[in-house]
Structure formats: structure tokens, C-alpha cells
Here is the input.
Amino acid sequence: MADLMDLARAAAEKAYAPYSGFRVGCALETAAGGRFTGVNVENASYGLTLCAERSAVCQAVSAEGPGLRIARVAVICLGHEFPPCGACRQMLAEFALTGGATEVTFLKDGRLVMRTLAELLPEAFQLA
Ligand SMILES: [Zn+2]
Here is the structure.
């Protein structure tokens, strides 16, 4: 997972975060082996701000189409530690492996922590 975390860290350097100062990067790997990154893109209206994870998902869908499945995700915020927010967990769930088996890695107490999406978002919202 360190390789994906390295990609996420490099991406975070490009984040647009003039309001919060929280520069976040995300890297994900699809079941097909594609790798995509995203950064948070803030907006003066705040509510339009896009998280790094959702930015990466949009990149992946744009490249692989609607059938993609996300196998692994790494997310990092430069100088801070936190897992994906609730909105991003739900967005990731839309493209997760069966049973929410997608692996999500983030930093906690200075260490890499891996959780499945099912652990991060039990009973995710689904229309079906
Ligand atoms: Zn988020």
C-alpha cells in the first residue's frame, strides 16, 4: 500500500486549499489495475468544495467508465491525519468491490491504517 500512499502524498502537493490549508491527496487502484489520483479543490463558497477522494473517483470513472470497481484507496492530508469523510465513503461505496471489500488506507497516530470500506461505512445507502 505504500506505493499508493506515495502517489497520494505527491498528489496532495497539488491540492487547491487556500481556505482550510488542508492539502489532501488520494490515489486509488481499480480492479482493472488502473491508477488514478485526486486532490481537494476548495471553493470560496465552501459548499462547492470537492474532496480528494471524490476527485479521484471522477478521474477513474472518466477513464474506465461506469463499470469500474475500486480495489484499493490511499488518502493523506499533509500535516494532518484523518480517514475519508462520510460523503467520500458513500461515493467510494458506489464503486466498491463486492461486500465493501475495497481497502482504504490512511494515517492514524503516525501509522498506516487499513480498513475495508464495509468497516468504514457499514450498511451503506443503496437504491437496490
Ligand atoms: Zn471527503
User: Anything to note?
Assistant: The chain has four helices and five strands. The CA atoms of residues 24 and 78 lie 6 Å apart. The chain has one domain: 2-120.
